[in-house]
């Protein structure tokens, strides 16, 4: 049997538009579900949403305004470095998660959920959702844009970038959050990003 199998260039594999719609839509639903579980537990998230929350706690400024203000430079960077198609897909995904968060919770009530089970489920479904969005040329904005750029440039894996940012963020958040909330929240983002590190690798998939 031949041992030297030629590698397929990932950039040569292009998804059709309906594959992108299905892939990005599935990712949005999974990411919303993970965040819904996290919110039901009253836990803290990472990335830009977490950063905006910490700044809001430090300054008293409104979270929504901070989230938009902090996110905007990342989208400008994404448009310049990753292209408009990537940026538009990212904006659509963020809008989708936002719309789902506003409309779906009344139809998905969580009566009881142990933190350990909730954190593990959050990490698994959100990481799978993010990988689906990544592989179809989008992101959920913020640090995810920098993380994908760093991975595409060969500097560092996307999951590693996100994990390092989240660890730094949680170190600051420790001043404001109760220990149990901090511990469970940190466990969730660690499992999430390790899952992305292990599974979102350009040397292991072709599409």
The rounded Rg comes to 17 Å
The number of domains is 1
Instruction: Spell out the helices and strands N to C.
Output: HHHHHHHH
Anisotropy-based shape:
globular
Mean pLDDT: 84
Tell me the strand percentage band.
under 5%
Low-confidence spans:
none
Between the first and last Cα atoms, what is the distance in angstroms?
26 Å
The secondary-structure class comes to mainly alpha
What's the β-strand tally?
Answer: 0
How is the main sheet built? none
Number of helices: 8
Q: Tell me the helix content.
A: over 70%
Write the layout of secondary structure elements.
Blueprint: H1 17-41, H2 47-59, H3 63-81, H4 84-103, H5 115-135, H6 143-152, H7 158-173, H8 179-199
Report on this model:
The chain is mostly helical and 207 residues long. It has one domain. α3 packs parallel to α6 and α5 packs parallel to α8.
Quick description:
This protein has 207 residues and is an all-alpha fold.
Could you name the key traits of this structure?
globular, mainly alpha, 207 residues
């Amino acid at each position: 049997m031949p041992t030297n199998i030629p590698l397929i260039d990932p950039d040569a594999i292009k998804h059709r538009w309906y594959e992108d719609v299905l892939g990005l839509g599935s990712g949005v639903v999974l990411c919303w579900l993970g965040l819904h579980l996290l919110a039901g537990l009253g836990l803290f998230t990472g990335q830009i949403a977490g950063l905006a929350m910490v700044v809001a706690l430090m300054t008293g400024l409104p979270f929504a305004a901070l989230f938009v203000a902090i996110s905007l430079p990342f989208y400008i960077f994404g448009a310049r470095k990753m292209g408009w198609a990537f940026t538009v897909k990212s904006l659509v995904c963020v809008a989708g998660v936002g719309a789902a968060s506003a409309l779906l919770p009344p139809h998905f009530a969580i009566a009881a959920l142990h933190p350990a089970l909730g954190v593990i489920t959050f990490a698994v479904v959100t990481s799978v959702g993010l990988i689906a969005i990544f592989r179809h040329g989008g992101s959920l904005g913020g640090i995810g844009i920098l993380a994908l750029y760093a991975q595409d440039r060969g500097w560092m894996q996307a999951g590693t970038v996100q994990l390092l940012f989240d660890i730094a963020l949680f170190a600051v958040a420790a001043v404001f959050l109760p220990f149990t909330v901090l511990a469970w929240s940190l466990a969730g983002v660690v499992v999430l990003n390790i899952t992305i590190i292990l599974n979102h690798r350009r040397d292991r998939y072709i599409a």
